Amino acid sequence: QVQLVESGGGLVQPGGSLRLSCTASGFDFNLLNIGWFRQAPGKEREGVSCISSEESNAFYEDSAKGRFTISRDNAKNIVYLQMNSLKPDDTAVYYCAAHRVSSQYCSRSKDDYRFWGQGTQVTVSS
To answer: What is the CA radius of gyration of the chain?
Structure first.
């Protein structure tokens, strides 16, 4: 069983930055693809970014390109999401999720991720 814990959310002004962390336990971290998803009130959960277990290949949805950076520290079992130039539209609960697979590519589909964290609130407002 994979356990995931997110941290790092909070209130930030437009244009500001936050770094989210996702700490995993209960499974070999090197065999996990990790995805970040978010859900705003009244909206569907959507993908933000993901990183593969092999070679740490990253993928970004259009909303995150050029502003967010995903990375992983396999020694610490942590995946980070550095978010810069934040906008009010980025306001949401951010979730990390794990897909137990050894792959050079990570899936964009939330249906492929079986294990989820509890989420961390990100609010971008002046």
So the answer is: 13
With a pLDDT cut of 90, the percent of the chain lying above it is 94
- Cβ-in-10-Å burial (0-12, 13-18, 19+) of 21 comes to middle
Please give the single-letter amino acid code of residue 20: L
Question: Which alpha helices (H) appear in the chain, and where do they start and end?
Answer: none
CB 95 within 8 A of CB 45: yes
Cα–Cα distance for residue pair 69/83, rounded to 1 Å: 7
CA-wise closest residue to 50 among 6, 86, 90, 104: 104
Q: Report the alpha-carbon distance of residue 90 to residue 102 in Å, rounded.
A: 30
Q: What pLDDT is recorded for position 76? A: 96
| Cα–Cα distance, 106 to 3 (Å, whole number) | 19
**Tokens encoding 12:** 């930030």
Bridge partner list, 77? none
Question: Is 65 buried (19+), middle (13-18) or exposed (0-12) by CB count in 10 A?
Answer: exposed
